[in-house]
Amino acid sequence: MDVGTLVVIGVIVLLAIIIVFSSLRIANEYERGVVFRLGRLIALKGPGLFFIIPFGVDRLVKIDLRVITLEVPPQEVITNDNVTAKVNAVIYFQVVDAQRAVVQVLNYINATSQIAQTTLRAALGQATLDDLLANREKINQNLQKIIDEQTEPWGIKVAVVEIKDVELPSTMQRAMAKQAEAEREKRAKIINADGEFQASQTLANAAQIISTQQGALQLRFLQTLVEIGTEKNTTIVLPMRPLLPGQQTERPSRAVPRSLHRLRSQARSPTASRRRQRVRRAAAAAAADHHRQRGARQAVGQSRDGHPGRSDVRRDVPHRRPLLRRRHPCARNWSVRQGDGGRHHDHRDRSCGRGV
Predict the structure, then answer these.
(1) Least buried of 102, 168, 179, 220, by fewest C-beta within 10 Å?
(2) Domain end marker among 135, 152, 172
(3) pTM as predicted
């Protein structure tokens, strides 16, 4: 073989090697190759090693089949109850049909992001703020269903849609804080009232059971004394006799000396009553005698002026000292004293023991 032939063979081999290396392609396990041959879509290539026709005959587009995380930027939405809020979300989706993802849409990632933003604003506008905060799981499922239906013709499968954050105005946050505080106070009062009701029922049942047994209340009282004694405090316990059913309370007795009781009983006796009557009669007689003496003194004064003499009057009416009547320190008692030739009544009140 001459040199020219060898050169031609070498050029052909070199071209063959270049063609082979330029047509050789490798696709990873998570990738698929969409090949357009002369503008026509052919079967998918990959994963692994495969060949295409180089020099512009075949055009290869690799599509990643892994799950893509797409963060939706914050969207300002107005809820159904006219509350303004900023909401952002995150979407997890993947390509299930590489050929449709290339043929049906220009940029499936950008298209999915835009459709997620519009769906987020539309779906949250139909929900109230309470649903947005409390029923977030239901809203997430609704968003996922809507976005998946719209991206299904593109060969995109939306797996999960989650609302990340809900930003509310400061005024709304304060109002919600007040509402939550009022709700907690309401629950606390209801729980407290329920506890008081149950406690009152239990106490009523316990009182009914204790009232049927005479010694039950005394045992309970002794148990209370034991509990107080274990605390080693300075509490003074005054035991009281428990009342039995149907028993009336007694009036507390005052500490009265026995001698005063005796005097009071004597004052209330019939003998003391008769004695008081005699004293009253004696006082009436003494008053009448006093009036007579006063009339006699007036008669003696007239005799000095030419009327009958004083000696006659003094022989008939003996000279007596004026009647003295004093009030006893006790309001109910009194005494009468008379001078020479008169009576002397000295009444002693047995209730107080003092005389005149």
Answers:
(1) 179
(2) 172
(3) 0.52
